[in-house]
Fold these 4 entries.
Entry 1:
Amino acid sequence: MSSEKGNVHYLLGVKPEDSHVKSHASRTADEECAYMIPTLLDLAKSVPKLRLLDVGCGPGSITCGLARLVPGAEVVGLDMSETVLEAARMEANSQGVTNVNHRCIAHLQHHVSAINELARVSRKGGGRLCMREGILPTFMWYPLNPTLDEAWRAIMAAYEANGALTDAGRRLKAWAVEAGVLRETICVHGRIMVLRYTGAPEALGAAWPARVSEGSLAERVVDIGAASRERLTEYAEAWRQWIDDEDGLFMLMHGQVIARF
Ligand SMILES: C[S@@+](CC[C@H](N)C(=O)[O-])C[C@H]1O[C@@H](n2cnc3c(N)ncnc32)[C@H](O)[C@@H]1O
């Protein structure tokens, strides 16, 4: 069932040493799941044996944060990569979080059928389905930098060449409806992700020069002719300068939905 190759859509690497996996490991439930935490806490009060599935849990820092919020719940982190799940298990152990398990799932190749299955599972016991995705074309840099604009467009082109949609966040409600979820049970939220100067090397932005110049995403950018290898080096350098700029800012919209059954 498991694979380290990933599916056709998921272009980023899945090893704990991959730059973006490191950056995901610094994410927190409070920040990333603010839209669904009130719903989760309400459910924890009313559902005696609450079960929470974190699908695409990655290295698991968010899963641990959610598990700590609902210590009486059984939490399961699912991912397609055994390697990243190993990192997630270590994270749970190091944090002393005991109500979380991690399992590998078969690839979810098609979004509507995946949502249909997640809705089927969530429906049991009157649960909720909470989903969040980025809307990559909404990117915004400060300071203005045409090289970074170009780099971001090259990344989006690589995703699209791999059959992925870069604007999934704005489609979540429509996909849920297509998957059979009743429109009136769906609540739509939005969030703006903000990356800013922190001065800390492990900060989210620090992963990006490597992400754009080496690894599977960078290879794909070159393969499809969106940029030359030399240009990738320039993207990385522009990104480094942005990271070091105390006034630097990157913003991106996310779509978030909650369906109640
Ligand atoms: C962008 S990371 C997010 C990790 C974490 N939820 C976070 O927000 O920091 C996406 C994760 O989903 C997993 N993933 C992507 N596509 C998948 C699929 N089709 N089936 C299962 N897991 C998938 C990847 O392995 C990766 O760990």
Entry 2:
Amino acid sequence: MTNSEETETKNPILVISRFNSILPILFVSIVTGLGVGTIDLFAQSSDQAPVGKREVVSRIVDRNGAEIERSLTGRFGYIYEQVRREATEIIGIEEFDSGGFLIETTIDSDLQTVATDAMLDQVAAVEKHPAFTGQTLVEYQEIKEKHRGSSSIARLPAPKYLQTAMILIDNETGAVLAKVGGRDFQDTMFDRSEMGRFTEGTIFTPFVYAAAFENGFFPGTILSDTPMSGKKVMLGSLSGNLGEWGAEDVNHRYEKTVTAREALAKGKNAATIRIGEKAGLQNIVALAETAGLTFFGDLKKFNATMLGRNSSSLSEIAKAYSIFPRQGATLKSTPIISRIRDAKGNTVYKNPAVESAEKAVDQYTAFQINSLLVDSFKTGTAKKAREIYGLGDYPVAGKTGTTSGFTDNWFAGYTSRVTCVAWIGFDQQREIYSNALSSETVLPAWVKIMNAAAKITNPQPFQPPSDAVKVEICTDSGELACEKCQETSVEFLRPGSSLKACHIHDPGL
Ligand SMILES: [Zn+2]
């Protein structure tokens, strides 16, 4: 594997998308220096307000009616700020200023607590990796401490420590159940789960396979698993072969041929490009856009897009992944405010009900991807989840995401009920550490969050469409298995699909 940081930072698209995410941080550090309390519009209790004005405090409650702490510190800081911002946009800042509103959110406070603790503990653990050389949170806190109480606080540099973000949504409505916007709202107000755009890396690859399955291929399709020239993809090292960082294994071995099922679950980069070329880049991009991703500049035209050269936000990735447990149907949004009532209890805003949404893939493709991403936890890049990290015994599907320069580590996955996307990386474009793999840096926290969500949401098995055709295929030929075939897998096809008998092992040929 090679570190391609130099080539990546030269790409203008990437630099722009990173820079967009850095600008608000610079701004935030200035605001923070002035004191974040100055933006607290909810601080309207009668003892603080001018006489005759702002007598009633607005309240924010979670989805169970429990009050969310009105604080920019702690586990709810980013949520508090997003809700405050959206509520003022909905109601109008002057109206809102009169106070007395009850803002009902979609947040589950228990899941928020688990999710925040899991991500913050995880990112702190990554900082302790022997190969980690970046600024640590503790180092930044020491710098901050030196400026405390002094006029130089306004010149406090923006933090450069490792960051994290996470979003957990309800698959039925898209409602945000929990989210983490960063490690410390007081250091940077910039919400990485909403506004951050980070290089997708191999988190993108399910959309390559989904496009293939929509265009004549299926999980049994045989792909060549042999080295590919780096020039074909222009990602990672351009001399020599395309790296296999997506396999999450520094000792990756080529297997000559693999099925599409194996290639996705095991995170094979070259094989992904091969099926992607068959599916057609335009089809892949169109599908991903329908699912909710946004592409920038010329990236739609290059093979590197198939391995996640594009940048996305966590909420976009969550929306896009949710098409698979939603049988192909897309989500319009990921709301966090469900209703706002005024001081008299009248509803002044209600999040519009979810309309019947457009389909990004059909139900057969959706099930096929579900089935492949379940394999990630059995034989693929996420198998440590059950072997080491304590993932519960419930139906779950997911995918690691690692970039060629190890700058961004992701895990995205779902049950039938919820979808969770977790990310670790720097706000600046830099390597987390050499060969940082998402199965080690992000997956342990993702498992904790999903275990907590599973306890209260009762996930159901992913079921094939009732009219799908069940077949047993030979994984050497990708054709119907016969008695002599050695390795086989069960696949579900669209009605009307037909396969030949295995030409390698069938005695009749
Ligand atoms: Zn066979």
Entry 3:
Amino acid sequence: MSISRRILILMLLLPMSTATAASALAAESASAPGNGVCDQDELCLYWGANFTGPVYDVQPCGNVRNYATRTFVNSTESLDDNVASIRNRSGYVYELYDRTRYRSPLMEIFSRDYADLGSAANQASSHQCIGS
Ligand SMILES: [Ca+2]
Ligand SMILES: [Ca+2]
């Protein structure tokens, strides 16, 4: 292959790699549910108080009707009766329930709220997006 042909191929490849890098950057800041990182627009459930330990990150306005069917990301710990704090980076309001299938309301998690659950820690078994 001639040098000029190699340069031509490089010139063709360069814009593509720049675009790939740009989309990778965009992906970092956008919502990426289930990756264990609390990204923008996600609801993030933490195993520990003060937003520590394993996390379960939910897509914008996503419901989970039975926490017993889920574990924290990269963890074997069940969500059920195991969530101690919640970050809501979305514009939605969520209701947290003591029981599965949205029964026995515990508390509301408001838009952009950071909630240490306190006395309601380790009780939640489901949650539902109830509006914006
Ligand atoms: Ca995420
Ligand atoms: Ca419960």
Entry 4:
Amino acid sequence: MKTAKPWAGVTARCTLPEDSSDIGQPGTFPRSVIAAGYTPLDVVLHGEHVRHSAGGTAGNVAAILAFLGWESAVVGEVGSDPAGSALRADLERSGVSTVHLLQTTGSTTRVVHKTGANGHSYHFSCPSCGVRFPRNRRLSTTNAERLAELLDPPGVFFFDRANPGTVRLAEKLADRGVLIVFEPASGIKAAYALKAFHLAHILKFSTDSGINLHGALGIGLGRRDQIQISTSGRRGAQYRVGDSRWRTSPAFEYPTVDEAGAGDWTTACFLHALTQNTQAQNNPTVENVGDALTWAQAVAAVSCGFTGARGLAHARSCETVLQSAQQLVEPATALVIPTTNTTESAACSTNPYRIKNDELSLLRAYTRDVCSTCLEPTTSADRSTAVISWDNSIPMAA
Ligand SMILES: [Zn+2]
């Protein structure tokens, strides 16, 4: 178990800025992110309940940063189908812009998550109607070039798939001073992965992905000042800056209901903590990285107490999440949580997950002509009888 360590300043660094006028000013980091890559619709099954939410590493990181008060957007393509509409609606409910998440012809990729007493399993076809889900759509180079011209540079560009489109957009945004964060998945194509490795200021990967930067491949692979983070679930994480030695950051223990999404919480909260430190924004030290990673791991541990990758964001307020993480990091310390500026962060000041009436109407329309589990259009009268629950009311075991 990780024990608390002396860690001055965590409270001040790891909360939302108190003065929104600081954002975008010289010396402060623009708290905005554009994410591209894997953004399926998650179909979370828990007993008889079904919940649909935007998922994938790119989708989750964007939504979690929005939850933490960042300006956030996902770019790319989804299908022009009910699943694509549900995905976009959930991102928007979570405070993520979908203006550049285009709905084009074809169907949207989905992932079924079965959760319960037996753990969390992933399925790429529908257990109700049997349809096999399509692969995730790549960002086209044409779209990447268009976006690079169109978008105001964000603070961070995050991507988790290395392909011609995402790498091109990363190149363009890097030229404009954007912090590039790459989190490769397994099965990456070497040519584009190498480009992405070299572009990234921050490279994070899970040892479960089969990527091993500890070996010969890792020496001098990235930028000289690159932050590298290797996570291993409950076994914790390792990190280094440039070619410094790898250091270990153990995981926190927390009652676990569902570990899905813990890595995405780690990524988002690491970025949130690191960029709140003025020194770390410009020239992060190993200590800056270690401190930010510790805080991120604490939030990730808390997230494991809730069902679904973003169950924590559905069930708790931003302030409560910050307090829970703080208790893990410094359990013996009396909590002093500064008041957040509620006008700055819609995610913290209101419940963005409340279903609006028009969304309920949309949902009713879906249930008439689609599989109620995966939202695949169907004319069959033999549909799943599972209860659709868009109000995120999946019972929380925590
Ligand atoms: Zn289905």
